[in-house]
């Protein structure tokens, strides 16, 4: 029954039952870390055969006859550019293949524009004192940390079922030239799991920014990461931008961190010719080239994009039951009380839940005291400040199914306790 | 006989013989690339067994029980920090292990200080309009390219047999607060091959810079790279700095690019606690961590620093005969004429030669026309401008012995032709 319909007495009775449950959990001395979207060991094992594919010297030679052990090839071997182009939804010639971290490429992109104009005639962002960045919320803490590091004022934009609130984005971007960009995870968004609608993508492509150096940081991290048998589809932002002559707007990123190994994947970015020219001027000064042997490992292991897609079926088989546990536990323990709303993603790494307003921090604290470490409350907001203190990101991938069931029971108990305590004052 | 003692007639006669020789070379249609310090295939092959050491899942677990396939460990696995500490001549806890490129770590260090104060109370270098950097010459073009990219005025400092001219360094650094750093390759310097003397290292450690954020960029790229049976030894700059309370002065870099694979080695830096705090604030925003599987590969392959040193004996066996060819050809073809001076390094990747002043560009051009591509003349100077147009960097590692013999004959012929043409006006 909805908590809003219970009397104070009924609530207090429920509270005392829940507290007894919680005490039981604490006595189990649990130690579960669900703080990050970290693949589990079972997931890592499915890619381990990739470690041994470079088993003779001649396999270190690329199709073009280039010895990948040696120096050279700033933007990645051509076959790797082709492979990554499918993840980025851009043309192979628009791809730059980097090291093991797309976050690093995003950081370097912002860093580049801090000291170098991002467009002809523009000012380096370091010189724009009131520089601002749009941050769809809830969103990804590591994105926000980059713009925080570089001193941007961050403007939260609410997420809807179809992506960021585009009315607000259009209004802000077209009116304020100090707004230099926006962070996006367009498919299976971190943490809500929603995918931007075709209309949202087209509205992004058609933006008319007041700043000529406004850029869309399009982190397509979960482009092939279904956790359901129905997968979402996402329009190519680059293609939509090209159609309307806005090719310099987007900078697109992805990686195989959650395809092969989080610690040793291959990252890549896609950009227009103009943007690439500016970024390559930096990269050519910064490095001779990223690890081409690791690119080759991926190429030999996957052969082509179809290989990646069929590999992702194995991840789905491991992840789907974990997502099901989370959603089922929520339904079982949180539906009746009507104190929380959550998403049911078809892909990605997270479930986003809004608990009773003003209780998220307490829920995370109580869970921690019972040995269940969650992503910090507020992490999904710029500077870690969730104004309503209600959003929590659940990362189901790392624990075992049984651990996850237990963790979700602890979590749901804490959500209900905190809600009642708030309700009864 | 010295060209300075020949009559004009004798010189012209010599010239006509040399031109006939040159014509013979051109007709061979050579195609030799000696432009970069690139290891040869034979050298790459000696490290190939490293590619297959991660042959089972359990080997991906570090000594501390950490699964190196997954996310985590920003500054590198502890055993990798220990291994690299010997190359950097710093304590393991002062090490940060990066990706495959120490150049990238140097770039990121300068980039960090461009937008963040390098010392408490200092100004980000981007705001220092007349920012300057000292560049020992001849030196490494990729170093100079970094400070050029970030808009530093570069002040050349002549190299001596013992390192940079320290009288000049001390005078400049103590008097001008806009001088923010100096580039150094302290052992087997690029390109002269000399190693800084103990006195030079101590004078560096005892610098009293006018700028509190002056930093020594100490690129110990060739720390274990002997090409002779007598090896040079280098004092630890960090230790010398610590002795005199100057631990924040140096930033030390090295990598296994020329130990294992140029394209897939492991890079690392060493820094004081203060410096590391500033840099880690950046790195923690930039990445979750570099490729730990590649660190593990190196650890399993080498076991310890002794393993690296004995591995380097194999490189020496391949490189020493190549360096001998260069020096012997110089002696054979250039000694008598007394028109050039060169170094005879005991390690590193280069031989530096000063040809007849005003002819270096022509020599490189003539060589190219005969199919022998050298490092561009001037490359060893900031902005590519060698004021006397005389220094050329020879990179003997990549060609075969026979190719190298031929290339050096072409080169010596060109050096003599250009000198005579200059002499006879």
Short description:
The structure is a homodimer of 425-residue chains. With 425 residues, chain A is of the alpha/beta class.
Explain this structure.
Two copies of one chain form a homodimer. Chain A has 13 helices and 13 strands. Chain A is an alpha/beta fold and 425 residues long. The first copy, chain A, folds into two domains: 3-44 and 309-424, Aspartate Aminotransferase, domain 1; 60-303, Type I PLP-dependent aspartate aminotransferase-like (Major domain) (Aspartate Aminotransferase, domain 2, 3-Layer(aba) Sandwich), CATH 3.40.640.10. In chain A, the strands form three sheets. Chain A has an eight-stranded mixed beta sheet with strand order 2-9-8-7-6-3-4-5, sandwiched between helices. In chain A, helix 5 links the parallel strand 3 and strand 4 (153-160). In chain A, helix 7 packs across helix 8 (237-243), helix 11 crosses helix 13 and helix 12 packs across helix 13 (401-424). The model of chain A has no long low-confidence stretch (mean pLDDT 97). At the A-B interface, helix 2, helix 4, helix 5, helix 9 and helix 10 of A face helix 2, helix 4, helix 5, helix 9 and helix 10 of B.
């Amino acid at each position: 029954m909805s908590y809003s319909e219970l009397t104070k007495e009924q609530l207090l009775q429920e509270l005392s039952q829940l507290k007894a449950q919680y005490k039981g959990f604490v006595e189990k001395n649990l130690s579960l870390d669900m703080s990050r979207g970290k693949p589990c060991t079972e997931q890592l094992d499915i890619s381990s055969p990739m470690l041994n594919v470079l088993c003779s010297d001649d396999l270190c030679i690329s199709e073009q006859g280039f010895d990948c052990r040696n120096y050279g090839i700033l933007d990645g071997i051509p076959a790797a550019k082709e492979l990554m182009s499918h993840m980025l939804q851009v043309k192979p010639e628009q791809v730059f293949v980097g090291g093991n971290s797309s976050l690093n490429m995003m950081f370097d992109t912002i860093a580049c524009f801090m000291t170098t104009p991002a467009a002809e005639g523009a000012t380096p962002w370091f010189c724009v004192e009131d520089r601002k960045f749009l941050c769809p919320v809830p969103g990804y803490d590591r994105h926000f940390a980059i713009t925080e590091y570089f001193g941007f004022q961050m403007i939260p934009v609410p997420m809807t079922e179809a992506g960021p609130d585009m009315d607000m984005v259009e209004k802000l971007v077209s009116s304020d030239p100090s707004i230099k960009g926006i962070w996006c995870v367009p498919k299976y968004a971190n943490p809500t799991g929603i995918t931007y609608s075709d209309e949202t993508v087209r509205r992004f492509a058609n933006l008319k920014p007041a700043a000529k150096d406004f850029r869309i940081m399009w982190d397509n991290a979960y482009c092939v990461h279904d956790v359901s048998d129905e997968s979402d589809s996402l329009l190519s932002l680059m293609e939509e931008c090209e159609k309307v002559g806005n090719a310099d707007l987007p900078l697109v990123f992805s990686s195989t961190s959650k395809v092969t190994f989080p610690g040793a994947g291959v990252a890549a970015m896609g950009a227009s010719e103009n943007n690439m020219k500016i970024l390559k001027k930096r990269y050519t000064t910064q490095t001779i080239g990223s690890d081409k042997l690791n690119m080759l490992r991926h190429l030999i292991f996957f052969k082509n994009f179809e290989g990646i897609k069929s590999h992702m079926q194995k991840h789905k088989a491991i992840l789907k039951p974990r997502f099901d546990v989370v959603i089922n536990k929520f339904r079982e323990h949180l539906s009746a009380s009507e104190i929380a709303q959550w998403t049911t993603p078809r892909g990605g790494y997270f479930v986003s839940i809004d608990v009773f307003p003003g209780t998220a921090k307490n829920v995370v604290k109580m869970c921690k005291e019972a040995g269940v470490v969650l992503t910090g409350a507020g992490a999904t907001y710029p500077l870690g400040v969730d104004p309503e203190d209600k959003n929590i990101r659940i990362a189901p991938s790392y624990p075992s199914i049984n651990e996850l069931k237990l963790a979700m029971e602890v979590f749901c108990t804490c959500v209900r306790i905190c809600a009642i305590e708030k309700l009864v004052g």
